[in-house]
Amino acid sequence: MRLNPTELDRLTIFTAAELARRRRVKGWRLNHPEALALICDEMHEAARGGASYEEVLAVGASVLTEDEVLDGVPELLGTVKLECLFGDGMRVLDVERPIRPAGERVP
Predict the structure, then answer these.
(1) Each residue of 11-28: pLDDT tens digit?
(2) Which top CATH class is 5-99?
(3) Handedness of CA 39, 40, 41, 46 (dihedral sign)
(4) pLDDT tens readout for residues 43-83
(5) What are the angstrom distances between the C-alpha of 16 and each of 6, 10, 62, 103?
(6) Maximum CA pair distance of the chain?
């Protein structure tokens, strides 16, 4: 199988996100790469599933809370910039402060 660089990047994100999901189920707090991969994977999947641009942004901002990540991770993830494939082509999304405070309700 030959994969282009974009496909290799997507598989790397997926693999890291699966590791993050496994650790999250165990109740472990996620580190920076795990949190970033999980947020990006959820956004990719939402876009792939037909969600609108705004819906994908909302997904990115609703995946994790501060209680689920190690100290300092929310500050490290000030902005997530991601290119997702939508029905009309690739688009870049910017999610500001994707890790919400503990106890904050998802809109």
Answers:
(1) 999 999 999 999 999 999
(2) alpha beta
(3) positive
(4) 999 999 999 999 999 999 999 999 999 999 999 999 999 99
(5) 16, 10, 18, 26
(6) 45
